[in-house]
User: What shape does this take?
Amino acid sequence: MLLAQARTETLLTLRNGEQILLTVLIPVALLVAMTVMTIIPAPDPRVATSTARVLALAVISSAFTGQAIALGFDRRYGVIKRLAATALPRWLLVAGRVTAALAVVAVQVAIITVVALLLGWDLPPAGGLLWTVALLVLGTLSFGALGVLLGGALRAEIVLALANIVWFVLLLIGGVALGVEDLPGPLATVIDLLPSAALAEALTTTVVDGAAPGPGPVAVLLAWGLAAGALATRTTRVD
Assistant: This one.
């Protein structure tokens, strides 16, 4: 039942043209632009730093923005209410969406990796790769919880607007396109506590240096994910 539900959710996401634009085309275009253009500051090796930041953006796009919008409109059209009335238990509905999000992220990572290699990126050592995979899973779960929190509580039109605004803000000043070190001091202190900056910073450590991430970014991701998950269980509605 879990595999069937996850497969359905994954196929629905991959068949959506807007989702493909958000989850694949924009991250790939940004990766190429950040690598070959010097307008956006990035430490050397530029392609490795850009790859780490774009991987973080890919997780945000699919796990947060895509999940929030999909859940909001599924609630609007009665999909969640009908599924809740079937033999599928509630935990399986949630697990199916989480598994689908992980599957979509895996597709994104594969595409971004191929493009990065073509741009001259050298894979980090095995330890760095394992930590990168672990961070991608943790980031997907944390941002997925935030997506459910947003998409499960508000009207679909509001979710659509807010999810895209938040995505755009996180891209510009959330520690993704611009690193926290490139932001003004007071703003950098605040941004450093956001899950987007934590994920981008941790992935930069594993992808560029091939080392384990610091405890700070991991703690930030865990805190946001647990808080969002706990709050979502109280606020998420099926209609």
In short: The CA atoms of residues 35 and 133 lie 22 Å apart. The chain has a mean pLDDT of 87. The two ends are 23 Å apart (CA to CA).
